[in-house]
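Changelog-adjacent note: as of this version, every example in the card shows the full chain rather than a window. The one below runs 267 residues end to end.
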Amino acid sequence: MNQNAIGVFDSGLGGLTAVKELNRILPNENIIYFGDTARIPYGTRSRETVLRYAREDVAFLRRHPVKMIIAACGTVSSILGANSPVDDMPFTGVVYPAARAACAATRNNRIGVIGTPATIRSGSYEHALHTISSAVDVTAMACPLFVHLVEYGYTDRHNQITRLAAEEYLAPIRNADADTLILGCTHYPIIRDIIADVMGEGVTLISAGEETAKYAKQCLEEADLLTDSTEPGRNVYYVSDSVSMFRDNARHFLEDAARGQVFSSRI
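Full-length structure tokens:
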């Protein structure tokens, strides 16, 4: 089983930020990625709909030889909470790894969280943060436009539309004097420079995708599931909508073209 792939799913392209970090941290591991690009965004859907989508995404990955599944989607991770949709292999979302890193990073115990409306409504980050440290004060803000802006390529550091949105969304977190900010959606690291500019110096940004990749390595080590291959791993991507659009936009998340084959697949 340790030669099987790591399965990763997301509502669209944001999970590729986790794939990028997995490729860096675990370069010999194979990855199978499913992006549900036909049904993005998940963040504005009802809890019941998100749970159904998540079950379908997991079932799709399980058609392939995988040894671990990562929900690289803040919305799915938040609604699942501590509940795992699988019981025969390691599973993680993005909430706990990011919360753990934020608690370790904060100096004044004031932590900000930004995410989709569904993520913020769920209160999952507040719960995870307070479980780790009862001393932290959390300010959470929904940023409903960010996913769309990123998916449509409004990612340049000087893009005024995205910057204006960031200034409005982040104002309450700045006013709360947070010294640490969790980017609670895997799309958000793509506009990290804009967010950092608006938040100002001295604020630590926590990427949910990066921290999840680190946590995945720990899970695989503990389960003795790391590959013993010395060859570079292979990525295979599946999307539920346009392959060409995926290829065009994937470079924003991977900082390169999609490494590996891309297939169109319906749930």
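Structural remarks: The chain is about 45% helix and 20% strand.
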